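Quick note —
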Amino acid sequence: MATLTNIIEFSRSYEPRTPVGADAPTATVEAGERKPPETVTLAGDGDGARLTERNQELQSLRLTQKELYPAQQAFSTEHVTALRLLGEGIVESKRALDAIASRDVLIADLEMQKLQMLLPELFCCRALGDGFGTLVNSLMSAFEGLAGETPNTDQMRMMSRVLRLLSDKPFLSTSEADEQLDALESVGLNPYPAELMDFLSSEQSVR
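Predicted structure written out below.
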Protein backbone atom coordinates (compact mmCIF):
# COMPACT_ATOMS: atom_id res chain seq x y z
CA MET A 1 0.00 0.00 0.00
CA ALA A 2 1.45 3.38 -0.99
CA THR A 3 2.22 5.91 1.73
CA LEU A 4 0.18 9.10 1.50
CA THR A 5 2.09 12.35 1.41
CA ASN A 6 1.24 16.03 0.80
CA ILE A 7 4.44 16.71 -1.14
CA ILE A 8 3.76 17.46 -4.78
CA GLU A 9 6.64 17.01 -7.12
CA PHE A 10 7.19 19.50 -9.93
CA SER A 11 9.07 18.61 -12.97
CA ARG A 12 11.79 21.11 -13.70
CA SER A 13 13.51 21.46 -16.98
CA TYR A 14 16.88 23.18 -17.00
CA GLU A 15 18.28 24.77 -20.06
CA PRO A 16 21.94 25.60 -20.54
CA ARG A 17 22.76 29.27 -19.91
CA THR A 18 22.76 31.24 -23.11
CA PRO A 19 25.03 34.18 -23.87
CA VAL A 20 23.78 37.65 -23.05
CA GLY A 21 23.77 40.18 -25.81
CA ALA A 22 21.76 41.74 -28.56
CA ASP A 23 21.64 38.46 -30.53
CA ALA A 24 21.01 36.21 -27.55
CA PRO A 25 17.71 34.31 -27.57
CA THR A 26 15.10 35.18 -25.01
CA ALA A 27 15.31 32.83 -22.04
CA THR A 28 12.12 31.12 -21.03
CA VAL A 29 11.26 30.26 -17.44
CA GLU A 30 9.53 26.97 -16.81
CA ALA A 31 6.77 26.64 -14.22
CA GLY A 32 8.22 26.28 -10.75
CA GLU A 33 11.69 27.47 -11.84
CA ARG A 34 13.33 30.57 -10.37
CA LYS A 35 14.13 33.39 -12.72
CA PRO A 36 17.90 33.59 -13.20
CA PRO A 37 19.58 36.84 -12.09
CA GLU A 38 20.07 39.50 -14.71
CA THR A 39 23.54 39.71 -16.13
CA VAL A 40 25.32 43.06 -16.18
CA THR A 41 27.51 43.76 -19.15
CA LEU A 42 30.87 45.17 -18.07
CA ALA A 43 32.40 48.17 -19.77
CA GLY A 44 35.07 47.61 -22.35
CA ASP A 45 38.75 48.25 -21.78
CA GLY A 46 38.51 51.87 -22.94
CA ASP A 47 35.57 52.64 -20.63
CA GLY A 48 37.31 50.93 -17.74
CA ALA A 49 40.39 53.10 -18.18
CA ARG A 50 38.25 56.22 -18.20
CA LEU A 51 36.43 55.11 -15.02
CA THR A 52 39.74 54.44 -13.27
CA GLU A 53 41.04 57.87 -14.27
CA ARG A 54 37.84 59.48 -13.01
CA ASN A 55 38.06 57.67 -9.67
CA GLN A 56 41.64 58.84 -9.23
CA GLU A 57 40.55 62.39 -9.98
CA LEU A 58 37.76 62.22 -7.39
CA GLN A 59 40.13 60.83 -4.79
CA SER A 60 42.51 63.74 -5.36
CA LEU A 61 39.62 66.15 -4.69
CA ARG A 62 38.55 64.43 -1.48
CA LEU A 63 38.63 66.78 1.52
CA THR A 64 40.21 65.86 4.79
CA GLN A 65 38.19 65.71 7.99
CA LYS A 66 39.98 68.82 9.24
CA GLU A 67 38.90 70.73 6.12
CA LEU A 68 35.29 69.56 6.46
CA TYR A 69 35.11 70.30 10.19
CA PRO A 70 37.55 73.15 10.92
CA ALA A 71 36.59 73.38 14.58
CA GLN A 72 34.83 71.34 17.20
CA GLN A 73 32.30 74.16 17.58
CA ALA A 74 31.06 73.80 13.99
CA PHE A 75 27.25 73.80 13.90
CA SER A 76 27.09 74.08 17.68
CA THR A 77 24.54 76.31 19.41
CA GLU A 78 27.10 79.13 19.53
CA HIS A 79 27.86 78.74 15.83
CA VAL A 80 24.20 78.86 14.77
CA THR A 81 23.49 81.82 17.07
CA ALA A 82 26.53 83.70 15.81
CA LEU A 83 25.54 83.25 12.17
CA ARG A 84 22.04 84.53 12.93
CA LEU A 85 23.30 87.60 14.78
CA LEU A 86 25.94 88.33 12.15
CA GLY A 87 23.27 88.17 9.45
CA GLU A 88 21.17 90.70 11.36
CA GLY A 89 24.18 92.95 11.88
CA ILE A 90 25.09 92.87 8.19
CA VAL A 91 21.56 93.89 7.27
CA GLU A 92 21.57 96.74 9.78
CA SER A 93 24.92 98.06 8.60
CA LYS A 94 23.66 98.01 5.01
CA ARG A 95 20.54 99.93 6.01
CA ALA A 96 22.73 102.48 7.78
CA LEU A 97 24.86 102.93 4.66
CA ASP A 98 21.75 103.29 2.50
CA ALA A 99 20.41 105.89 4.92
CA ILE A 100 23.68 107.83 4.78
CA ALA A 101 23.50 107.75 0.98
CA SER A 102 19.99 109.25 1.28
CA ARG A 103 21.31 111.80 3.80
CA ASP A 104 19.06 110.42 6.51
CA VAL A 105 21.47 110.57 9.45
CA LEU A 106 18.76 109.79 12.00
CA ILE A 107 17.93 106.40 10.43
CA ALA A 108 21.62 105.63 9.98
CA ASP A 109 22.26 106.33 13.66
CA LEU A 110 19.28 104.16 14.66
CA GLU A 111 20.52 101.20 12.60
CA MET A 112 24.02 101.48 14.03
CA GLN A 113 22.56 101.51 17.54
CA LYS A 114 20.75 98.26 16.72
CA LEU A 115 24.05 96.81 15.56
CA GLN A 116 25.79 97.91 18.74
CA MET A 117 23.11 96.20 20.84
CA LEU A 118 23.77 92.88 19.08
CA LEU A 119 27.45 92.80 19.96
CA PRO A 120 27.25 91.74 23.65
CA GLU A 121 25.17 88.70 22.69
CA LEU A 122 27.52 88.01 19.81
CA PHE A 123 30.47 88.17 22.21
CA CYS A 124 28.85 85.34 24.19
CA CYS A 125 29.64 83.12 21.18
CA ARG A 126 33.40 83.67 21.62
CA ALA A 127 33.83 79.93 22.28
CA LEU A 128 34.09 79.68 18.48
CA GLY A 129 37.68 80.85 18.78
CA ASP A 130 40.06 83.52 19.99
CA GLY A 131 39.97 85.29 16.63
CA PHE A 132 36.18 85.53 16.75
CA GLY A 133 36.18 86.90 20.29
CA THR A 134 38.92 89.38 19.45
CA LEU A 135 37.04 90.89 16.52
CA VAL A 136 33.68 91.13 18.27
CA ASN A 137 35.37 92.78 21.24
CA SER A 138 37.12 95.20 18.88
CA LEU A 139 33.76 96.28 17.44
CA MET A 140 32.39 96.83 20.94
CA SER A 141 35.44 98.92 21.79
CA ALA A 142 35.09 100.88 18.55
CA PHE A 143 31.54 101.90 19.48
CA GLU A 144 32.69 102.76 22.99
CA GLY A 145 35.42 104.96 21.57
CA LEU A 146 32.89 106.86 19.46
CA ALA A 147 31.15 107.94 22.70
CA GLY A 148 27.68 107.98 21.16
CA GLU A 149 28.69 109.62 17.89
CA THR A 150 27.40 108.09 14.66
CA PRO A 151 30.16 106.34 12.69
CA ASN A 152 31.01 107.99 9.39
CA THR A 153 30.61 106.24 6.05
CA ASP A 154 34.12 104.74 5.99
CA GLN A 155 33.71 103.47 9.54
CA MET A 156 30.35 101.89 8.72
CA ARG A 157 31.83 100.17 5.70
CA MET A 158 34.71 98.82 7.77
CA MET A 159 32.35 97.49 10.46
CA SER A 160 30.23 95.85 7.78
CA ARG A 161 33.37 94.30 6.28
CA VAL A 162 34.37 92.83 9.64
CA LEU A 163 30.89 91.37 10.14
CA ARG A 164 30.97 89.75 6.71
CA LEU A 165 34.41 88.30 7.43
CA LEU A 166 33.16 86.78 10.67
CA SER A 167 30.15 85.34 8.88
CA ASP A 168 32.36 83.73 6.23
CA LYS A 169 35.15 82.67 8.61
CA PRO A 170 33.85 82.39 12.19
CA PHE A 171 36.83 80.19 13.12
CA LEU A 172 39.48 82.64 11.93
CA SER A 173 42.83 82.66 13.67
CA THR A 174 44.11 85.32 16.04
CA SER A 175 46.63 86.55 13.45
CA GLU A 176 43.81 87.04 10.93
CA ALA A 177 41.85 88.97 13.53
CA ASP A 178 44.85 91.19 14.31
CA GLU A 179 45.01 92.22 10.66
CA GLN A 180 41.44 93.55 10.94
CA LEU A 181 42.35 95.55 14.03
CA ASP A 182 44.81 97.50 11.92
CA ALA A 183 42.08 98.04 9.31
CA LEU A 184 39.71 99.41 11.97
CA GLU A 185 42.38 101.79 13.19
CA SER A 186 42.97 102.97 9.61
CA VAL A 187 39.48 104.54 9.53
CA GLY A 188 39.76 106.18 12.95
CA LEU A 189 38.16 103.45 15.08
CA ASN A 190 39.79 102.35 18.34
CA PRO A 191 39.50 98.54 18.52
CA TYR A 192 41.03 98.24 21.99
CA PRO A 193 39.10 98.33 25.28
CA ALA A 194 39.35 101.56 27.24
CA GLU A 195 40.65 99.64 30.29
CA LEU A 196 43.54 98.32 28.22
CA MET A 197 44.40 101.78 26.91
CA ASP A 198 44.30 103.21 30.46
CA PHE A 199 46.57 100.42 31.65
CA LEU A 200 49.08 101.01 28.86
CA SER A 201 49.03 104.75 29.53
CA SER A 202 49.72 104.21 33.23
CA GLU A 203 52.57 101.85 32.42
CA GLN A 204 54.16 104.43 30.14
CA SER A 205 53.80 107.19 32.74
CA VAL A 206 55.52 105.02 35.36
CA ARG A 207 58.46 104.44 33.04
